[in-house]
Design goal:
0% strand; oxidoreductase activity; mainly alpha; transmembrane; transmembrane helix; 272 residues; Fatty_acid_hydroxylase; membrane; 13 helices; disordered C terminus
């Protein structure tokens, strides 16, 4: 197995911390919606989940996507490693493949009941802000990582592309979950090539037909091309209800309850 320099993880961590702080500051200056529940309690739960995810990755995944991509490249494994593509085309194709897989994976996690048990924890947040962008159950993170690694190996995506995608995925997830007000003309233009907070917020509506839309994390093209794009929430961004109807009590959404959600039998796919 090819060893990836520690600088790789340092870059990812630096981008995460820097962008998290920047978006958190921007939310305070230009909030899109008033918060409905205690931010300190939500952040305690969300940041605890982020720490748990990191521990799971460290403990159970000695091989990570970038290292796997480097190993595949050295051993000439995977589709792209068999082709003599220009580096720019190789990177573009790799980014598009990974982004499409994440979109399809997200749709699958909403469609398959067992996978929805894992994913619904993400949807129980009663407000949206930058911290929600990393609020995923450790089991979902682990499964998503396995899927991503399988795609990296199958297609032979090069390590630089995988690293760039990992950074972009995390950055866009924090951005599109941010409680950030963007001037309407700019937002309309921006959502043509990037998923905006207003676009992704629809996905966190309690209304199932809105929850089952806008599955993309970075590029909006897959939702538009594959028929899952929903422009605006029925009740407007200021009046829409965020979360799931079955999980409405903040005092029951501490970190230990969140970690137990996949084992609960409640069907959180109900609503109007």
């Amino acid at each position: 197995m090819v060893q990836v320099p520690a600088l790789t993880e340092t870059i990812r961590l630096a981008v995460f911390i820097g962008l998290f702080a920047l978006l958190a500051a921007a939310e305070r200056l230009w909030p899109r919606r008033p918060l409905t529940v205690s931010k300190s309690r939500r952040w305690l739960a969300n940041i605890s989940i982020i720490v748990a995810d990191s521990l799971v990755i460290r403990l159970f995944f000695p091989i990570l996507p970038v290292a796997l991509a480097a190993t595949a490249q050295v051993n000439n494994l995977g589709l792209f490693n068999q082709l003599s593509l220009p580096s720019w085309l190789n990177m573009t194709a790799g980014l598009l493949v990974l982004d499409l897989v994440i979109y399809l994976q997200h749709r699958l996690f909403h469609r398959v009941p067992l996978l929805w048990r894992l994913h619904r924890m993400h949807h129980t947040d009663l407000d949206l802000d930058v911290s929600t962008g990393n609020r995923f159950h450790p089991f979902e993170i682990a499964l998503s990582l396995l899927i991503k690694m399988a795609i990296v190996l199958l297609f032979g995506i090069d390590p630089q592309t995988v690293l760039l995608f990992e950074i972009l995925l995390n950055a866009t997830s924090m951005f599109n979950h941010a409680n950030l007000s963007i001037p309407l003309p700019m937002e309309r233009w921006l959502r043509l090539f990037l998923i905006t907070p207003d676009m992704h917020r629809v996905h966190h509506s309690v209304i199932p037909r809105e929850t089952d839309s806008n599955f993309g994390f970075s590029q909006p093209w897959w939702d538009r091309l594959l028929g899952t794009y929903h422009a605006q929430p029925r009740d407007g961004h200021l009046n829409m209800m965020i979360g799931l109807r079955e999980y409405r009590k903040q005092d029951e959404l501490g970190v230990w309850r969140l970690l137990r959600i996949p084992f609960e039998s409640i069907s959180a796919r109900r609503g109007v």
